[in-house]
Amino acid sequence: MRSALFNAYYWVLSIFYGLSAALSALLPGRRPIAFALRLYSRRMIWALRTFAGISIELKGQENLPQGAFIIAAKHHSWGDGFVMFAHVDNLSFVTGDHLEKFPLVGAILKKFGAIVVDSCGGPEARRALSQSAAQVAAEGRRILIYPEGHLAAPGERFRYRTGVYHMSRDFGLPVVPVATNLGCFWRQTDKKKTPGMATIEFLPPLPQDLSKAEFMARMEDVIETRTNQLIAQARGEPVRPSVLVEWNGRENVAATHTKAVA
Description:
The chain is an alpha/beta fold.
């Protein structure tokens, strides 16, 4: 019943704010559309708590630098994006071009200043990412990116992509990793919600003097390790290693990431 109430509210609010954002896109500047998106996100967090019984504990905000920086986050569900936009000022985000197939969404993304890249990746996507990120970085905005490029179920991980490293290197931006266990309560796009206290945690910024290989290994390690710990806390279980899965068919292709801790 609680999930049904939230889902109904979710779609009503999404349609309302989607139309509001489309109208805001006609106004000069990005401030009106940014205001609409932040208000929408805050209403969704309220609805999660009120209807679905999911409260959000936000930790590690002292790790957020001043000025422009990159947020490299674990992506468990649609809900983690709401938390970012509700609590991080002057935020842009990286998204796949698949969203542009929805009516009005392309115009909204363009007006908001989102960084839209080819969902299939490759050299062209990297070039587009670099060009769009250059403008966002010059404006002093923060950039939200999901390094795996997909929603991951709790306990799973996808291959981490290198776009975060290239943005950090090219524009000298610090990278703040983010871990979460929100998927234990709102898993990916599931309609069913499980009441409880979810945690989203900003971790200390990564060192900026690492090689590409060192950076990618460090980023994946800190995000997955802390995420696995938060999942274990939510479930009252020992820490279990995350499993690498492929996007095509989501088959298990590798065994472990971190050692299990009792």
